[in-house]
Design brief:
Helix content is 35%, strand content 17%. It is an alpha/beta fold. The strands form 17 sheets. The chain has a six-stranded mixed beta sheet, with helices on both faces. It is globular and about 120 Å long. The two termini are 47 Å apart.
Length: 1860
């Protein structure tokens, strides 16, 4: 792809909603604004097309498990898109508005607070406030020795604490166990004396475990006694001693108790704290939430004030939660209960509530008995409560409502009083959580601070070294988030502020702050009107933020109407020219100048000043009438008084968060509602009083919510214009003649609508992960009504024609009908002449919905006393729409009403009669009345809003012009931006150690500072963006730690944070990398060889998702056939069955029958046996049926009783299983005129016949034909009971899988024999019988990729089928093509992924990424050349360069020299492995690295160092070999192969040629079975001979030597055993009686009890990187003090584990057994490794060499065959050289080595080469060459030979000799 294309986003053929096949190009890395009139298609293009496709493509790169939780990601309706990056949307709906969400939770600051308190919080007792700590025996001992040295001490175990009882039995048991004394109630007594305790008094008993003096000599005994006391006392111990006096302490101390706890519990109060986990501090989790308020901070209680109307009697409705039907809401408790209650307790039925006594009111509300309430007596059987009233027992209405409230909360809230929770005082958390402190503050206290105060707190805290280590990442994340929030101007917000109270502007800025904070680049941000809710002053900050996102290297797309934002854009796209069906075109695009110069652009006309919203020449004078709000103090309002004049256009303005909505929505609207609706439960916000309410008779809020939630709602139904139109149609002569009422002309009710589509006109085909497809109904052709209804005309138009009219057309059409014309005229007046009357309401924009509502208000009769409240009505409106809106609002004011608007838009403010400005700031800095009056007055006063108004007033309308910049200036500006960004980056990374790195910094490079994952040594590095970078270095040097654990982890984590909180829960734990800073990151995608499924159910088709699309295709357009006969299944609706009858039986007389019993059918009918017919006769008669047919003979139902009693008739009627019973539905003459009767009769027959109708042709001797409602083959009795779904074609689902083989296609327990039921096709027979173009899904998958593409491109479809299949077909063909492009055309779609080679799996994964077409992504690859032959490597590099050239960064960990040479940039990590690595040895281009002699990579690249070819190959012994005959496993072609023994043999060949099938599946498994006794099944072959010549066989791989940190080189190599023996033989060990087990950190006796022998504590940091902290007790040494007292040559056992192997060889030089094992490890290049290094930190290469060294060190046990499968995986060339040295040493010792390998360095050193091929898959599986490596070159068909040639540097003459 050319560079020109990667600089653009290309969209071709976008047709979502009203888009008209739009094609456009958008420049990348720009701020692009989409604008146009409301409803023109802006959001359809920006969100429903570009955003949706960008996110869908990235999400497809995630795991299949993760994707299922990310919601249905539909593919938009667009032909082609390229240049897309991963997308993130920022809109106003993103902030969670639930009552549980706060600023802290939305920004995730609170999540980090929870982690901070869980890891660094100090727990205190919630009761007494004592600091709680957990102490181990050694810590308790140390404390006692510090506090009471040389004092006598009693060590006591608390056994009974303040409990009643005699405890005789317990005292006897303790004495029997050997204890001598106990302290009973404070007195030490001997247990052998008689101790009598009062049974009913409380006692305290402590066992005396030991008595001793606290001296150094007794320390070991003291520790053991404390340990025993803790064990006996359940974690509690008491030390009774006298505290030691200090020099400055002259006071004499008494002996006193010192209580210690091993548990996290208060020793005094015995309160145990739960585990310190983050969820303990979550008010949304039961572990942390206050139990009283459930974490809300407020309690809701039903109160008399809210529940009762004091001026009504109980019987008349004093208790207001009764419905109009007379029942208590949501219950079956009704007026019977009320009357019974009043009568039982003698309460007057007529007494008003206020006149009842307190006792009576309490009785009614709270009852007189505690009664068990449940579903039975409240919801199901209310009579149970009536019976209780008979016994004078009443539960009370409030307890009943409390029970109901558990199930139905919302509607009952208005009857509840909300108050601060008394237990947590609004802090939401339980006492345990609030008892944990950090720096003296609990988490609730810290969260109540504003963002500004919080920043100050964290800047000033002082931490210990351990706290700094644990909290480093936490503090970084908290400070980053707080600073970004402060930077976007919301620093005044408190973190515990409810998210639901945030203004739109505040929510928008919070979301934007998180995106700026993510620091991503290469992302496509799509924003939906970010200026909504923002004051003009805030808008400047917004534009600055958008530019900051752009300057980072992102593309920013903004749907916007704000003029300032439009003028700030780099690129503009104007969509129009009008709204709805008249829109969906690109009117103009380009620079601001281009838009203005396009005459068709309405936007351009307004921007140029040719069109404008005029300032009124004269404003309406204020009247005397007004509403005055006194002392408004709701939310942040500061006790203000505010006057709102009536009869004017009033606007309320002010910055975001200044209190506008609090004043108007929170106080005024609720007060007006309460005043006008006496039964309203609306409670206005805090204020003193409101005067003037009586001057208003109506309050109406007009917003932009949809006018309907379903497509059945439309402008005609909402405005009620459809009612008179339907009435008009029903008055036509023909309608009257047919008896049609107006209901006949509604598509929402039966009668006139088409029943096939139920009046929708369209059928929606659900396409699951593709966009749903809508196709016209086959019966009504999209007209919604049945043919009879459409035969009624008014002025030559049907009802459907009217619904298809625009408002403008309809207004002209119905001009003579005043009732209809008046409504249509108001729609026309508000500028909606272009919308259709029947347009679904769900397709109307917010602005259009708002104007439909206004039009409804305009046609109502004006009272002149109405207040219309609009909150930001210009949202989503273009200048043109705003002008129309203002015209409508002014018309309402001209009728004498008041329009009150909350608004920031200056076009609205400048035309208002009166403006009220709140402020001056937001949050705590707002809430004051800044100014009010006409707009000119605000301009004069120079308020914040006034300044902007003054600017507008001062501009002359005619002089308004646009200053253009030429292209040179634009370029200049961009270069300034680049320079500025470069300076910014330089500042951020100014303290980088290496000046060369700083010089490399460019605008979009990836900059990493302080990476310290695993063995990385605080690495600083710069990686060029949009380049192919290789990270290389010796095995274990830290490559993967940098590439994957740092760069990839951080890149993907940052992008995933943009997804929904719900989705992120299922995406696995994305840990933050331990790094100081990373800048320039893009969203990251990892490609490795572990991604492809290896289970037996996974196939090439499932892995590539081709099978998912095939399942969808077969479910939606597949043709079902009968699995018995193969005939097609046919199903009919009542309409299509009527059409069938008309077509085949027109003019014939037929009888329509409903089968009640059909012999031989598997279908369930009304009768399970004909003999039961008598049981249903009465019900059939009642339903109006007249006849039935029995065996074709008619019988009248009204004569049934006579017939059944007539013996002769009875004898003639035989009710057996062969008797047919049919109900006669109708008898009629088939005619096109009477279609309705025919369809209704068939529908009735389907209903009675359980989906079948029998058509009896009376004119043809009673011939019958049966039609089925469900698809069926009636003759064979096969019925398709359910509609086809994709799951039915899944062999991994019980719905579709063959039950015999469980969808595997084979029987795994019988040598994988083909399943006899499904013949290996894996599906049930009924789903195998579904075909497309005569091919079922299983047969299709048996095709190769090339064949499948040819087949699918030649499929023929009907028009409807093509519409449905189009998207899925496109996806399948695209995937097949990319598979072909990477050379996998030979694979079949049903090939199991477990049989794929590593190279094939890798290329499948790569193909899917190429197919995604993403741009700006960072691809991180882990050794992509693994498993690839040299020939395939060149293909791979071509693919990677293709991804790079598209505008992506490709970063790979790699050792292959050819691949390294192709890189743009190389980072060499080293210089050694393990703790000798983790540094940047060199970086630069391949030529620059080659010139650096000090690096190993450079030496190999330059050729200064290389692996030499052996002078000669080892000779073969004639009969010393393994011979395999007739190998046919997988793709092997009956191979006969000879594997020579006693030599170094390499099996090679291209990917998929059959290497693993031959060596692993056949040979290795056979040897494992014969030599090792393993129960495995070898691959198919005839025989293997020569096995008897081997003593053993061993497979050496790169699997970890252990899964836990406890495994290490010392334990794996078994050297630890003789070392422990040595230590146990030391004099000091023998003296103490220490055995060798004492020196194991896995055994309890010798290890440190605090860390259990690990030396470190793992601090789990959840979404941050886990931290390992050195154990405080053993200081990382793993053992306890007693064990470390033993040494050898001055080294303790802990010192030995910290030794490098080379040092250990010297230390143990006098110990032959130990030295031999260690020396072997040193010889294989592991001398640098520490003996105690955790096994799970070793690289694959290190683990492999450790295994080899263990084999080499083992005493010879006969000849062994060593099998290695690609052992060079993860190995640097230098590591390969070491490996080869070891392997050749094994051969020299008389063993055999057999390797599967592609690495040419290995192949050229072999004694024997077996080359398979010549290609992969079915074209492989043959022997191309076998012999010595050198001669392979002479084989022209051998790819291996071609690539080996340079290694031998042969001349042409030499090759000729070899070929001869």
């Amino acid at each position: 792809m050319s560079q020109e294309k990667t600089d653009k986003i290309v969209v071709i053929g976008a047709s979502e909603h009203n888009l008209k096949n739009v094609s456009l190009e958008i420049p990348r890395n720009t701020l692009t604004v989409f604008t146009g009139v409301s409803g023109s298609g802006k959001s359809s293009l920006a969100f429903d097309t570009i955003f949706k496709e960008g996110q869908r493509r990235f999400v497809e790169s995630l795991s299949a498990y993760a994707r299922q939780f990310l919601g249905q990601s539909d593919k938009p309706r667009v032909e082609h898109m390229e240049g897309l990056s991963p997308t993130i949307s920022v809109d106003q709906k993103t902030v969670n508005r639930s009552s549980r969400s706060t600023v802290g939770t939305v920004t995730e600051v609170y999540d980090h607070y929870r982690l901070l308190f869980a890891r660094l919080g100090k727990p205190h007792c919630p009761q007494c406030g004592t600091r709680i700590t957990s102490q181990n025996p050694e810590q308790i001992t140390d404390y006692a020795y510090l506090d009471g040295l040389n004092e006598l001490c009693l060590i006591l175990a608390p056994m009974v604490q303040e409990r009643k009882g005699e405890y005789r039995k317990e005292l006897e048991e303790w004495a029997a166990q050997g204890f001598v004394r106990a302290r009973v109630d404070g007195e030490v007594r001997r247990l052998d004396e008689e101790i009598r305790l009062a049974r009913y008094e409380k006692h305290t008993i402590e066992l005396v475990v030991d008595r001793l003096k606290i001296t150094a000599e007794e320390k070991s005994r003291f520790t053991e006694s404390v340990e025993k006391a803790l064990l006996l006392g359940n974690g509690m111990a008491i030390l009774h001693y006298r505290k030691r006096s200090t020099e400055n302490d002259n006071e004499m101390h008494q002996d006193e108790d010192h209580l210690f706890s091993q548990l996290m519990a208060c020793p005094s109060c015995q309160i145990a704290l739960p585990e310190m986990e983050p969820r303990l501090f979550s008010f949304n989790a039961p572990q942390g939430a206050c139990p009283t308020c459930n974490g809300i901070g407020q309690t809701s209680t039903f109160t008399e004030e809210k529940l009762c109307n004091s001026n009504m009697s109980v019987l008349d409705g004093a208790i207001e939660c009764f419905t109009e039907k007379g029942n208590l809401m949501y219950t079956r408790i009704d007026q019977r209960h009320v009357r019974k209650l009043l009568g039982t307790f003698g309460i007057s039925k007529k007494s008003l509530w206020k006149n009842l006594s307190v006792e009576q009111r309490q009785l009614i509300l709270y009852g007189n008995t505690k009664m068990k309430l449940g579903v039975r007596n409240i919801f199901r059987f209310p009579g149970m409560l009536l019976k209780k009233l008979d016994k004078e027992q009443w539960a009370g209405f409030i307890p009943i409502l409390k029970f109901v409230n558990r199930f139905v909360k919302g509607p009952l809230e208005k009857f509840q009083h909300i108050s601060i929770c008394p237990d947590c005082t609004g802090r939401r958390l339980n006492k345990m959580a609030l008892a944990v402190k950090f720096n003296g503050r609990d988490i609730s206290s810290l969260s109540s601070d504003s963002i500004e105060v919080s920043i100050s707190f964290f800047e000033k805290i002082k931490l210990t070294e351990t706290e700094q280590k644990i909290g480093r990442d936490i503090f970084r994340e908290i400070m980053d988030r707080l600073n970004f929030l402060n930077d976007v101007g919301v620093g005044y917000l408190a973190l515990d502020r409810s998210a639901s109270s945030l203004s739109g502007g505040e929510g928008q800025r919070i979301r934007l702050a998180s995106q700026v904070g993510s620091g991503l680049q290469g992302v496509l941000y799509v924003l939906d009107e970010p200026s909504i809710g923002l004051h003009q002053s805030d808008n400047i900050n917004l534009i600055r933020t958008l530019r900051k996102l752009r300057d980072r290297g992102n593309t920013v797309l903004v749907v916007e109407h704000d003029e300032e934002t439009i003028r700030s854009a780099d690129h503009l796209v104007d969509i129009g020219p009008t709204a709805g069906m008249g829109g969906g075109h690109i009117t103009a695009q380009g620079s601001l100048k281009n838009i203005i110069e396009t005459p068709e652009s309405i936007t351009g006309q307004f921007l140029s000043g040719n069109e404008k919203i005029n300032i009124p020449g004269m404003r309406r004078p204020p009247s005397e009438e007004k509403i005055t709000i006194h002392g408004a103090s709701y939310n942040n309002l500061r006790n203000i008084d505010c006057e709102i004049p009536l009869g004017l256009f009033v606007a309320v303005a002010g910055v975001s968060g200044s209190g506008k909505s609090s004043l108007i929505d929170g106080i005024l609207k609720k007060a007006l509602t309460s005043h006008l609706m006496k039964d309203s439960k609306e409670k206005p916000g805090d204020h003193k009083k409101i005067s003037g309410l009586e001057k208003v008779d109506r309050v109406i809020k007009i917003d932009q919510t949809p006018i309907g939630r379903t497509p059945r709602s439309n402008p005609a139904t909402y405005t009620k214009v459809l009612d008179p139109i339907r009435e008009l149609f029903s008055m036509t002569p023909e309608a009257k003649a047919r008896g049609y009422k107006k209901g006949r002309f509604s598509f929402n009710v039966k009668g006139g609508r088409c029943e096939d589509c139920q009046g929708a006109g369209l059928k929606t085909i659900e396409m699951q992960f593709l966009s749903d497809v809508q196709i016209p109904c086959d019966i009504c052709r999209g007209k919604r009504f049945n043919s009879e209804t459409l035969q009624i005309f008014y002025k030559n138009r049907t009802i459907q024609d009217v619904l298809e009219m625009t408002v403008k057309e309809a207004e002209s059409f119905f001009s003579a009908v005043p009732k209809i014309h008046a409504i249509l005229q108001t729609l026309l007046d508000v500028g909606l002449g272009y919308i259709k009357l029947g347009q679904p309401s769900t397709t109307l924009s917010g602005g259009e919905a708002q104007r439909v509502k206004i039009s409804s208000e305009l046609r109502k009769k004006a009272t002149g006393n109405t207040i219309y409240i609009l909150d930001e009505p210009t949202t989503g409106l273009h200048f043109q729409d705003i002008r129309l809106l203002l015209s409508c609002l002014n018309e309402l004011v001209d009728q004498g009403n008041t329009v009150l608007v909350i608004e920031h838009n200056l076009d609205v403010l400048k035309v208002a009669d009166h403006v009220i400005e709140l402020g001056p700031g937001g949050g705590q800095y707002g809430g004051e009345l800044v100014c009010d009056g006409p707009p000119e007055y605000l301009a004069e006063k120079q308020t914040l809003t006034g300044k902007f108004l003054k600017q507008i007033f001062s501009e002359d309308a005619n002089s308004k012009s646009c200053n253009f910049v030429d292209e040179g200036q634009v370029v200049d500006e961009k270069s300034v931006n680049i320079q500025r960004l470069g300076e910014q980056n330089s500042l951020e990374f100014k303290d980088l150690e290496d000046q060369n790195i700083r010089n490399l910094i460019t605008q979009r490079d990836i900059l990493i500072k302080g990476a310290s994952k695993n063995n990385l040594r605080h690495v600083d590095v710069c990686i060029p963006n949009s380049k192919m970078t290789v990270i290389t270095g010796v095995s274990g040097s830290g490559k993967t730690s940098l590439a994957f654990d740092t760069i990839f982890a951080e890149g993907q984590a940052r992008y995933l944070e943009s997804l929904s909180t719900y989705a992120r829960r299922f995406l696995g734990r994305m840990d933050k990398a331990p790094v100081d800073a990373i800048d320039g990151l893009s969203p990251a995608i990892a490609i490795n060889q572990k991604s492809t499924g290896r289970n037996p159910r996974s196939t090439v088709a499932t892995t590539t998702e081709i099978y998912d699309y095939l399942r969808l295709l077969y479910a939606r357009i597949g043709k079902a056939h009968c699995p018995k006969t193969g005939k097609p299944l046919i199903g009919y609706s009542s309409s299509s069955a009527a059409a069938y009858c008309t077509e085949h039986f027109d003019g014939e007389r037929v009888e329509l029958l409903a089968p009640l019993y059909l012999p031989g059918s598997s279908k369930i009918f009304l009768l399970d046996h004909p003999k039961n017919l008598s049981n249903v006769i009465d019900s059939l008669v009642k339903e109006g049926f007249v006849r039935i047919n029995i065996n074709g003979e008619p019988i009248r139902l009204d004569e049934w009783d006579e017939i059944i009693t007539d013996q002769k008739v009875q004898d003639g009627l035989e009710f057996t299983r062969n008797t047919t019973v049919d109900l006669v539905i109708d008898r009629l003459l088939v005619s096109k005129v009477d279609q309705k009767r025919l369809a209704e009769a068939i529908e009735n027959a389907f209903h009675r016949g359980h989906g079948l109708v029998k058509i009896c042709m009376t004119d043809k001797n009673g011939e019958t034909e049966i039609l089925s409602e469900t698809p069926a083959n009636v003759e064979s009795g096969f019925f398709q009971l359910e509609e086809l779904t994709p799951r039915m074609f899944s062999f991994n689902s019980h719905v579709g899988a063959c039950p015999a083989c469980d969808g595997l296609g084979v029987f795994s327990d019988t040598n994988e024999a083909l399943c006899s039921d499904c013949d290996g096709e894996r599906l049930k027979p009924e789903f195998r019988s579904v075909t497309i173009n005569d091919l079922n899904i299983s047969k299709f998958c048996q095709l190769s990729i090339a064949e499948a593409r040819t087949k699918i491109e030649n499929w023929i479809f009907t028009e409807n089928q093509h519409t449905i299949a189009e998207q899925a077909l496109g996806e399948i063909i695209t995937r097949l093509k990319f598979m072909e492009d990477v050379g996998l055309d030979y694979l079949t779609l049903d090939q199991k992924t477990s049989t794929l080679s590593g190279g094939e799996a890798q290329r499948i994964r790569l193909a899917s990424q190429i197919g995604s077409g993403l741009v700006g992504v960072m691809y991180v690859l882990d050794e992509p050349t693994i498993g690839l032959h040299a020939r395939d490597t060149s293909r791979l590099i071509k693919t990677l360069k293709q991804m790079r050239d598209r505008g992506n960064s490709v970063i790979m960990v790699e050792h292959d020299l050819d691949t390294i040479r192709q890189a743009d940039h190389i980072i060499d990590i080293g210089p050694g492995a393990g703790h000798y690595g983790g540094r940047i040895s060199a970086f630069g281009s391949p030529s620059e690295i080659s010139a650096k002699k000090e690096t190993l990579t450079g030496q190999y690249l330059s050729g200064k160092k290389s692996i030499s070819v052996p002078e000669r190959c080892r000779p073969l012994k004639p009969d010393y070999a393994l011979s395999v005959s007739g190998a046919t496993a997988n793709n092997l072609k009956k191979l006969d192969v000879r594997f020579p023994l006693g030599v170094f043999t390499v099996v090679t060949g291209v990917s998929g040629s059959g290497k693993s099938s031959l060596v692993v599946d056949v040979l290795q498994r056979k040897l494992e079975k014969e030599l090792n006794g393993k129960q495995v099944k070898p691959g198919e072959h005839q025989s293997i001979s020569g096995i008897e010549q081997l003593e053993s066989m061993m497979v050496i791989n790169q699997d970890p030597i252990g899964r836990t940190p406890r495994s290490n080189p010392a334990t794996y190599s078994k050297v630890m055993e003789p070392i422990r023996n040595l230590f146990s033989s030391m004099p000091e060990a023998r003296e103490r009686g220490y055995k060798k087990g004492r020196f194991s950190f896995n055994g309890k006796e010798g290890r440190c009890p605090n860390c259990e022998g690990q030396g470190f504590h793992l601090i789990e940091m959840h979404f941050l990187s886990d931290v390992w902290v050195k154990c405080d007790q053993c200081k990382g040494k793993r053992y306890n003090r007693e064990t470390l007292a033993v040494s050898y040559k001055g080294f303790t056992i802990a010192d030995v584990l910290e030794m490098e192997i080379s040092q250990a060889v010297e230390v143990f030089s006098s110990q032959p057994r130990i030295k031999r094992i260690l020396k072997t490890m040193e010889e294989v290049g592991l001398g640098y490794m520490k003996l105690g290094q955790a096994g799970n930190t070793l690289s694959g290469g290190e683990a492999q060499r450790l295994k080899l060294s263990t084999e080499l060190a083992r005493r010879s046990r006969g000849t062994t065959l060593y099998i290695l499968d690609e052992p060079t995986t993860g190995l640097h060339v230098d590591d390969v050289a070491r490996l080869l040295k070891v392997l050749h040493r094994l051969v020299d010792q008389g063993h055999s080595v057999l390797i599967i390998e592609h690495n040419l360095e290995v192949i050229k050193t072999a004694d024997w080469v077996i080359d398979l091929g010549p290609e992969g898959g079915d074209r492989g599986g043959r022997i191309v060459y076998q012999g010595i490596p050198k001669n392979c070159i002479s084989k022209p068909e051998s790819y291996t030979g071609k690539f080996l040639e340079p290694s031998f540097n042969l001349t042409g003459e030499s090759r000729a000799l070899m070929s001869n």
